[in-house]
């Protein structure tokens, strides 16, 4: 769905192929796993996506 421009995806960085139009942004949660937000390269995130990323970051911030 992310590659179709219908949203974002949370998935392991290794799951994003090198030959894709998706870009990734690393998020550092408390988990011992690298999480990335995938979206269309060069596309501006919508306000909803920005809100989601912000909320996820707050939820996963070290306490």
Tell me what you see in this structure.
It comes from Paraburkholderia lycopersici. This is LysR substrate binding domain-containing protein. The protein has 63 residues and is of the alpha+beta class. It has one domain. It contains one helix and three strands; from the N terminus they run E-E-E-H. The protein has a three-stranded antiparallel sheet with strand order 1-3-2, with no helix packed on it. Strand 2 and strand 3 form a beta hairpin. The longest helix has 14 residues. The radius of gyration is 12 Å and the shape is flat. The model has no long low-confidence stretch (mean pLDDT 81).
Any chance you could write out the topology, listing elements then pairs?
Elements: E1 9-12, E2 22-27, E3 35-40, H1 47-60
Antiparallel strand pairs: 1-3, 2-3
**Structural class given helices, strands, pairing?**
alpha+beta
Total number of beta strands: 3
C-alpha end-to-end distance = 32 Å
The 3D shape can be described as: flat
Helix content: 10-25%
CA-based gyration radius: 12 Å
What order do the SSEs take from the amino end to the carboxyl end, as H and E?
EEEH
- Strand percentage, roughly? 25-35%
Largest β sheet strand count, sense and barrel closure: 3 strands, antiparallel
Number of domains: 1
Mean of the pLDDT scores? 81
Low-confidence residue ranges = none
Number of helices: 1
* Largest sheet, spatial ordering of strands: 1-3-2
Protein name: LysR substrate binding domain-containing protein
Organism: Paraburkholderia lycopersici
